[in-house]
Structure formats: structure tokens, C-alpha cells
Amino acid sequence: MRRYESTVRGQFFGHSHYDEVEVAYDSQDPTRALGVAYLAPSLTTFNSGFPAFRIYTLDGGHPAATWALLDHETYLLNLTKANAEPDKPASWELEYSARAAYNLTSLEPQQWDAVIRKMEHDDALFNAFYRYGRRRGTQSSQCGQTNRLGATPAYFS
Prior knowledge:
Elements: E1 11-13, E2 20-25, E3 33-39, E4 52-58, E5 69-77, H1 79-84, E6 92-97, H2 98-102, H3 109-119, H4 123-133, H5 145-151, E7 154-156
Parallel strand pairs: 1-3, 2-7
Antiparallel strand pairs: 2-3, 4-5, 5-6
């Protein structure tokens, strides 16, 4: 990642059945975030989560485009609500915007690093991250302290 960090704007992956973000750190300076991988949620109900998809907004399509990732929004289909009202058409709901949910000014690696650092002490922020990741499924209740480290989106590369 270090070699191409000025070119790579993000890494985008298909689903792991969860809604995930992984921050990559410099192996020679583990305090320096240098990349972000985005793993979009799935449309399946595997692991009891609601079907979900993500839309990415980029700075592109104009002569001065930077192709920076400006935001991503995740939408989900609340099956509990849809099944309770079978005569009404099901509708996709905005689950969250990354910028709004995590109070980000950009989606640069350093901003995500700051979110990770804040999650270490901010239970409400961490629990929101965990709930979004589980797509409001039955496993989306609060994550215990024992499992918290494994659920935090920080990785070294």
C-alpha cells in the first residue's frame, strides 16, 4: 500500500455478509494510517442481518476530479417491517451515511484512524459501528469487551 498510497483512493470489496471498513497501517510506522478497505454488506439474510447495499459517492466526472471518496451510504430492507405489512411494498431505508454517522470531514485514512481511536473510549460510537456492521440483525446487540478488539477496524499491512 505504501508505494501506491497517493494513487489508491480506496479498496472496494464484495460482501463478507457484514458491513465493514478496514484501515491499513504502515508496517514501518504502525501509527500512520495509509489506506482504507471498504467491504460492502450483502443482500442475503445470512447471520440474521437485513439485506443491505452501499452507494459510494466520488469526486469524479469533471476536469479537476480527484476521485476521492466523499461518502458512502448504506441502505437496508427492514424485513421485520416488510413482513408486518405484507400488503404494502417493501422499501429500502437509509441506514447511515459514513460521514454523518462517524462525524467525518473526509473519508481519508487519517480520518478513519481518528474514528478508531475515538471508539476505544466512546461506547456509543463503537456500538453504532458494531450495529451497522451487523445490519441490525439478531447479532447486532452490544459487543462485549472481550470481542471488542476483534470487531475494531484496524489492521496493519
